[in-house]
């Protein structure tokens, strides 16, 4: 049994994911592809039999379900505590007033006069049929989450976010299949990608970004071709246009400068012109290094590899 509005909300979220991942529906309540009515009753602690239930309609979102149940729970409690009696009713949720309103008093089950539909013959559902259907279903979100955690080392929270929708989960897996590091793919999808989608009020399938292009950009970061800062520029391009990141980086001259043979002369020139910073660093003022690195980045228009710069810089200072 579901015993709280929060539990009902969590159940619906889980059900939504399962139905969406099987491809049975896109489960968009606002478009009518999923409908929810609720029945709720309250009973004193220790009482075994259920109290009189009420049905709530006009629930157009999971939030409405949660809020409607929370209100109705308090309403019924107030009725009983005041000595009243809860009637079996159908009530309507008013999202503006945030309360349930009476639609009609329900009849008892016997009054509905249920009878079999003669034009609908019984359907025999064998266990083999059930097993065959179950075996053909895609991997459910809970199993995907566990696989992300165990196989790719994705944190549990991140795995949960990635499996919120089938679209995001499929995109993540396709990106990893293209050779991207799983953790980096997860970070980009949860960070920059989700941020862009939220800001533009669009879904993943409505932008130009492809798993191959996202994976390509991540690999450019990993092999040092571009820096994380440069990657932000690349990302803006590939999410808005069908652009190959490797080709675009070369065309725009955004390749990170990592060759020591090219960096050393630049670093030596900066050091020659900033003897005071060298003296300050040797005197224990570590912030002097930050100034020197800043000058080098300025000279290279931000394209020098910071890691390589620091290695060469420290080696050159020691020789002076």
UniProtKB/TrEMBL annotation:
<dbReference type="GO" id="GO:0005524">
    <property type="term" value="F:ATP binding"/>
</dbReference>
<dbReference type="GO" id="GO:0016740">
    <property type="term" value="F:transferase activity"/>
</dbReference>
<dbReference type="InterPro" id="IPR004413">
    <property type="entry name" value="GatB"/>
</dbReference>
<comment type="function">
    <text>Allows the formation of correctly charged Asn-tRNA(Asn) or Gln-tRNA(Gln) through the transamidation of misacylated Asp-tRNA(Asn) or Glu-tRNA(Gln) in organisms which lack either or both of asparaginyl-tRNA or glutaminyl-tRNA synthetases. The reaction takes place in the presence of glutamine and ATP through an activated phospho-Asp-tRNA(Asn) or phospho-Glu-tRNA(Gln).</text>
</comment>
<keyword id="KW-0547">Nucleotide-binding</keyword>
<dbReference type="InterPro" id="IPR003789">
    <property type="entry name" value="Asn/Gln_tRNA_amidoTrase-B-like"/>
</dbReference>
<dbReference type="InterPro" id="IPR018027">
    <property type="entry name" value="Asn/Gln_amidotransferase"/>
</dbReference>
<dbReference type="GO" id="GO:0050567">
    <property type="term" value="F:glutaminyl-tRNA synthase (glutamine-hydrolyzing) activity"/>
</dbReference>
<dbReference type="InterPro" id="IPR014746">
    <property type="entry name" value="Gln_synth/guanido_kin_cat_dom"/>
</dbReference>
<dbReference type="GO" id="GO:0070681">
    <property type="term" value="P:glutaminyl-tRNAGln biosynthesis via transamidation"/>
</dbReference>
<keyword id="KW-0436">Ligase</keyword>
<dbReference type="InterPro" id="IPR042114">
    <property type="entry name" value="GatB_C_1"/>
</dbReference>
<dbReference type="GO" id="GO:0006412">
    <property type="term" value="P:translation"/>
</dbReference>
<keyword id="KW-0067">ATP-binding</keyword>
<comment type="subunit">
    <text>Heterotrimer of A, B and C subunits.</text>
</comment>
<dbReference type="InterPro" id="IPR006075">
    <property type="entry name" value="Asn/Gln-tRNA_Trfase_suB/E_cat"/>
</dbReference>
<comment type="similarity">
    <text>Belongs to the GatB/GatE family. GatB subfamily.</text>
</comment>
<dbReference type="InterPro" id="IPR017959">
    <property type="entry name" value="Asn/Gln-tRNA_amidoTrfase_suB/E"/>
</dbReference>
<dbReference type="InterPro" id="IPR023168">
    <property type="entry name" value="GatB_Yqey_C_2"/>
</dbReference>
<keyword id="KW-0648">Protein biosynthesis</keyword>
<dbReference type="Pfam" id="PF02637">
    <property type="entry name" value="GatB_Yqey"/>
</dbReference>
<protein>
    <recommendedName>
        <fullName>Aspartyl/glutamyl-tRNA(Asn/Gln) amidotransferase subunit B</fullName>
    </recommendedName>
</protein>
<keyword id="KW-0808">Transferase</keyword>
<feature type="domain" description="Asn/Gln amidotransferase">
    <location>
        <begin position="170"/>
        <end position="317"/>
    </location>
</feature>
<dbReference type="Pfam" id="PF02934">
    <property type="entry name" value="GatB_N"/>
</dbReference>
């Amino acid at each position: 049994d579901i015993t709280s509005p929060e539990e009902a909300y969590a159940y619906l979220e889980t059900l939504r994911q399962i139905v969406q991942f099987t491809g049975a529906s896109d489960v968009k309540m606002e478009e009518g592809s999923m409908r929810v009515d609720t029945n709720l009753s309250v009973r004193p602690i220790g009482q075994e039999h259920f109290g009189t239930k009420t049905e709530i309609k006009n629930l157009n979102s999971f939030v409405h379900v949660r809020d409607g149940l929370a209100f109705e729970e308090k309403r019924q409690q107030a009725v009983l505590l005041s000595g009243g009696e809860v009637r079996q009713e159908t009530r309507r949720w008013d999202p503006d007033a945030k309360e349930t309103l009476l639609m009609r008093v329900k009849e008892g089950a016997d009054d509905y006069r249920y009878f079999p539909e003669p034009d609908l013959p019984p359907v025999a559902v064998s266990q083999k049929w059930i097993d065959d259907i179950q075996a053909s279903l895609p991997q459910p979100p809970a199993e995907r989450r566990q696989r992300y955690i165990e196989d790719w080392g994705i944190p549990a929270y991140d795995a949960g976010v990635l499996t919120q929708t089938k679209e995001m989960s499929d995109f993540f897996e396709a990106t990893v299949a293209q050779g991207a590091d799983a953790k980096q793919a997860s970070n980009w999808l949860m960070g920059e990608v989700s941020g862009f989608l939220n800001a533009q009020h669009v879904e993943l399938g409505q932008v130009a970004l492809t798993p191959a292009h996202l994976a390509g950009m991540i690999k450019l970061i990993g092999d040092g071709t571009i820096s994380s800062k440069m990657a932000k520029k690349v990302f803006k391009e590939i999410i808005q246009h069908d652009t190959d990141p490797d080709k675009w980086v070369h065309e725009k001259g955004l390749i990170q400068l990592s060759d020591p043979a090219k960096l050393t002369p630049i670093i030596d020139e900066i050091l020659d012109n900033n003897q005071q910073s060298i003296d300050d660093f040797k005197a224990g003022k570590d912030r002097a290094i930050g100034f020197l690195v800043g000058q080098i980045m300025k000279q290279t228009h931000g394209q020098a590899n910071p890691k390589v710069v620091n290695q060469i810089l420290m080696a050159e200072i020691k020789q002076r």
